[in-house]
Amino acid sequence: MSSVDEQxxxxxxxxxxxxTAEIKAIALKLMADGGADAISLRAIAREMGMSGSAIYSYxxxxxxxxxxxxxxxxxxxxxxxxxxxxxxxxxxxxxRILAWGQAIREWALANPQGFRLIYGDPVxxxxxxxxxxxxxxxxxxxxxxxxxxxxxxxxxxxxQAGGDHQWSDFAPTLVATVRDAFPDLPPAALALALRVWGxxxxxxxxxxxxxxxxxxxxxxxxxxxxxxxxxxxxxLEQPK
Amino acid sequence: MSSVDEQxxxxxxxxxxxxTAEIKAIALKLMADGGADAISLRAIAREMGMSGSAIYSYxxxxxxxxxxxxxxxxxxxxxxxxxxxxxxxxxxxxxRILAWGQAIREWALANPQGFRLIYGDPVxxxxxxxxxxxxxxxxxxxxxxxxxxxxxxxxxxxxQAGGDHQWSDFAPTLVATVRDAFPDLPPAALALALRVWGxxxxxxxxxxxxxxxxxxxxxxxxxxxxxxxxxxxxxLEQPK
DNA sequence: CACGGAAATTGAACGCCGTACAAGAAATGG
DNA sequence: CCATTTCTTGTACGGCGTTCAATTTCCGTG
Lengths: 240, 240
What we know:
Number of strands of chain A: 0
CATH architecture of the largest domain in chain A: Orthogonal Bundle
CATH superfamily of the largest domain in chain A: Tetracycline Repressor, domain 2
Helix content of chain A: 55-70%
Strand content of chain A: under 5%
Number of helices of chain A: 9
Order of helices and strands of chain A: HHHHHHHHH
Distance between the termini of chain A: 60 Å
CATH topology of the largest domain in chain A: Tetracycline Repressor, domain 2
Oligomer: homodimer
CATH class of the largest domain in chain A: Mainly Alpha
Structural class of chain A: mainly alpha
C-alpha cells in the first residue's frame, strides 16, 4: 500500500495495459458468438462496468480496436500454423505442407469468426490502414508458404505450368524478404507459393462461410484430398 | 387517363412490382459504393422520397431484402458464367473450364461488393434462411462445375489422388440432380467438382478481399497460371 | 502532508440505424 | 357514392459510434 514497490514500469501504465487487454478479451468474446459486427464499444463498456465513452481513452475509434484485433488474431493463427509445420521434420516437405494446410483449416473451424475477421469483411466499411499490421501477418503467411515451396524447388518447377513471372510482379518488401531467406529462388516460386495459398484458402473459405455444408457432409475428406493432390502436384511422395 | 386501360394483370400489382424493383436497384447502388452494410432501409426510402417505414410494405425486414439481393446477384453471376462457358464449343473442355474460371474472376472484379455479398459475410448477424434461394444458386454453380468435370471423366480420375467418396457424403438433392444429369458419374467426380470450385474460389476471394494486392501486382497472371495448372491436372491439353 | 496538475472517467447530446404501430390518405370494387 | 382494402406517414423505442465539457481519481512534488 505504500513504500516504493516496483513502480519501475509505471503503475499507471500497467493498469492501462490491463484494461486494454480486458477490452480486447471481451471484444473477442463478443465476436466469438455474434460475429465481428457484434463488437460494439458500448457493449464492451457495459460488460466492464464502465461508461461508453471511457473506451475512447484506449482506442481512438472502433476501427482501431478492430485493427488491433485483426493483428492479434492473425498473429495467433500464424503462431499455431508455424508450430504445426515445425512439428514435422524439416526434411519432410510433404508432411510439412500437409500440416500447414490442416492447421489453417482446424484453426478456422475452431475460430470461424476469427477467420472471417482476418480474411473476410471485418466490418461495416472498414478500411485496412495502408501498410498496417495485417499486411505484416499476411506477409508472414506468404513467406512461410514460400519456404514450403522452396523445399520442393526446383523439383516442383518442372511440374508447374508457370507464366513468365518477374520479381517486379511482387511487392518490393516481400521480394526483399524472400530473396534474403532464399537467395537462389526464382520469382516463379513466389508465384507458386501464392497459388498454394489460394488453393488452401478456397475450400476453407467456402466451408467457413457455409457454402460447402449444403453440398457435402465430408468437408474434411474433401480438403484432405485437395491437400494430397496439391502435394503431389509439387512432385512429392504421398505423406503418411 | 380514363377508360379501362389494360388492367388485366392488375394495375396495383404492377406498381407494386415496379416499386419493389426500384428498391432493389437503389439497394444495389448503395451496395456498389459502400458495401452491403451501406444498405439501409432508411437511406433507400430517403433516396426514393418516401417515408422510412414505407419499405416494410415491400420487404418484411432488412434481412429479407438482403436475401432477395443475394438471390438476384448470385443468379446474375451464374447467368454470366454459364454464358461464358457456352461461348466455347461443347467438346472443348479445356477452354470451357478456363472460360468458367475467368468469368467468375472478371465478374468478381467488376462487382466486388456483389462477390462479398454472395460469398462473404453478407451483413451483421445475417443468417441464411434454411434451404432458401442462395443454396439453389450455389447448387447451380456446383452442378455446372460437375458438368465441366464430367467432360473430362474418367480421363481425369486416374490423375487424381481421390479419397473414397460415397454418394452419402453429399447432399441428397444435389446427388439426385447430378445423377439425373450424368447417370454414370461416380461420387468421386462430384468431389472433384467441389475441389475445382474451391480452387477457383481461393485466389479470387483473396484478391477481392485485398489480401493479394499487397503481395503481387499481377493477380491476373497468377490466376491464369492456376487455371492452366488446374486444367492440366484434369489431363486436358493446354487451351489456346 | 497537502496540493496542483495530469490522467481517467462520466453523462449528456447528436445523428444514424432497424423495427413497430397506430393513424391517416389513396385507390379500388360494388 | 361509399365501404373496404391497400398503401403511406409520423412517431416512438432502443442501440449504435462518436464528441465534448465537466468531473472524479490518482500521482509526483513542494
